[in-house]
Hints:
It is built from 11 helices and 5 strands. It has helices spanning 2-18, 44-51, 59-70, 73-85, 101-116, 124-143, 149-171, 174-179, 232-248, 256-260, 267-273, and strands at 87-88, 91-92, 185-192, 197-207, 213-218. β3 (185-192) and β4 form a beta hairpin. α1 (2-18) packs antiparallel against α6 (124-143). The longest helix is centred in the middle third of the chain and has 23 residues, at 149-171. It starts with a helix and ends with a helix.
Amino acid sequence: MNILIICIVIVAVYYFYKRRKNKKSEGGYVAANASLGQIIPFSDQQLQETSNKNPEVKAFEKIKELEKQYGDSLREGLNALFSNLLLKGNRTLSGKTSQLGRQVAETVATIDNRYIISIFRGNPDAYQEWWLNALVILNGIIIDNQQSPKQTALWMDMTKDFNDVNSILERNDILKKMSEGEIDELESFIDDPIKNIHRNIKIKYRTSSVGLWYYEMQGGYKYFRTDLSPDFLTRLVELFIASVAVLQNPNVALWRCDLEKYGLPGVEKIERVL
């Protein structure tokens, strides 16, 4: 099961090296100024133990190389990120609870703005490398998170659902059309008896209040009301945000436009600030 879950992160690392660009979204962003709460320091030993479970990625070594080259601010950002995306019971390590998805998204955007993106200005490849390897380590910690078994269970179910639904959408050429903005409105029944996926989806093209386009996809993903970003890095970040927000507010649907309005980490973002 661990192999199935981590594949979504490893595939993103693969795309980082093979496909450096993605379709850009258009629109404005809201300034992210969230309080970060208590920041818990993570030691090299803690990070290396998690990274060693996925030696083919060598995430810890890459994180350390970037810290050596760009400075200690990156470790501060990593600590802030993990403190706000790891749960102990129903509360983040930073002390937050009862957050909506947009509140978690604002926190992640604030961390990126404060600690990460300014460090890599002019070097988008290093920026993407830091984020992807940080998420590989975070993935491993969540899978083994004994402080919040509910987060582990949710993460496994959510990523499996995301991968299963996407495989069906891809087979039907729907995912490609969505990523390229070629669908105005669509209703389709997707079916896969092997994966036990039987859903009637309705897709509508929308534009958010700050001008970001997205698809409202009713009946598609179990935990999202809409599609996720076509930017592979932003999409990963959105999944990790959901692993916190869904547990803290299980009756509130997640909307892509709410998550992205603050300018989440992504290929488009680093290119925009160059």
